[in-house]
Write a structure and sequence with these properties.
Radius of gyration: 16 Å
Largest sheet: 7 strands, parallel
Strand order of the largest sheet: 3-2-1-6-4-7-5
Helix content: 25-40%
Number of helices: 6
Distance between the termini: 35 Å
Oligomer: single chain
Number of strands: 7
Shape: globular
Length: 181
């Protein structure tokens, strides 16, 4: 086995990325305090060709040196938009027939391993503040909530870790149902 050089990875150019067919998944970050978490979500979103990121509330926006540290240029590839009001973003996406799911621990949440996306449906995932999570007002108007099963003594994961887990899981499931045409 030999480690591959960057030149052997066949990475897309920024223009190729922007022209690529995207995974029908939108990420909404609401009131995220950590600039490193924001950058990490951008980087994960680039890796899985996520359609768009909405930055809401106090979530910082690019260009920002601290976001760039973890995004490593993904703010230049992944489409993003800022809107202070998450409820407005949710309502607008619902009008576009996007299914919205908060990633949160709530009554009757769907465990991530049990969540099955529907073919040709577009989804948006909401990730909330590192301390307070997704707001109850946002949860009330979502189509549902997805919970990451956790077996240890802690009851939460870092937002960038949660985003990575959920994005990867849904990317696999969506890719699988899209290829079974």
């Amino acid at each position: 086995m030999r480690k591959l050089a960057n030149s052997e990875l066949n990475r897309k150019s920024v223009d190729d990325f922007k022209a690529s067919t995207k995974t029908p998944l939108i990420i909404i970050l609401d009131d995220i305090r950590s600039l490193h978490n924001i950058g990490s979500v951008f980087r994960t979103s680039d890796a899985f060709l996520i359609e768009k990121i909405y930055l809401c509330g106090i979530t910082a926006i690019p260009p920002n040196k601290e976001i760039h540290k973890t995004a490593l240029g993904a703010t230049e590839t992944v489409f993003w938009e800022y809107n202070k009001n998450i409820l407005e973003v949710i309502e607008n996406l619902k009008k576009e027939n996007v299914s919205l799911f908060a990633v949160e621990q709530v009554e009757n949440a769907i465990l991530l391993n049990d969540f099955q996306p529907i073919k040709e449906k577009k989804y948006a995932l909401i990730f909330g503040n590192e301390v307070y999570g997704v707001s109850q007002d946002a949860i009330k108007i979502c189509d549902g909530c997805i919970e990451i099963p956790q077996l240890g003594t802690k009851h939460s994961l870092n937002i960038s870790v949660s985003a990575g887990i959920v994005i990867w899981d849904l990317f696999q499931k969506i890719s699988s149902i899209q290829s079974n045409i």
